[in-house]
Amino acid sequence: MLELRKVNILRIEEELGEFARMYVNENDETFIKTSYVRSFVNLQTRYANGNFIRGVYYDGNLVGWILAVVNMPEHSSEKYLNQMYYCCTLKGLLAAKALKLAHEALIAQAEYARIPYVISQCSFYDEAMTFARLLEKYGWERRGHTALWRTSHFKG
Residue 94: which CATH number? Predict the structure, then answer.
């Protein structure tokens, strides 16, 4: 069964370490080098600052994670929940379901926090923009590599 979980407060170090390890393992080091230590420390900081972070689990095993922060662009007075990282080791239909599950949680968080927008962008590795195209199929607006969801708090 596919499920999304908050970080377990009793296992913060272990779980954030697993997230950082997964990110480093999924990265193409020939393009941009990563650092496990830096990734781990930044995840700890994001968690301590109250940013949205969830693990994606399949049959009890970690298969992905998502992190989002609240931003306000310099050209607007409206906040948005911005997906900063999404990492998933699943492929095919399960990967699509995990993406949907994680992004439904982002929408729910934005609704709860009364934030009008959720923004999610493809990785630069996703040259076909599959990530954003899948979100578009789930009802998101898409422009290039960026997907946008307008919550009920959007005043357009």
Answer: 3.40.630.30
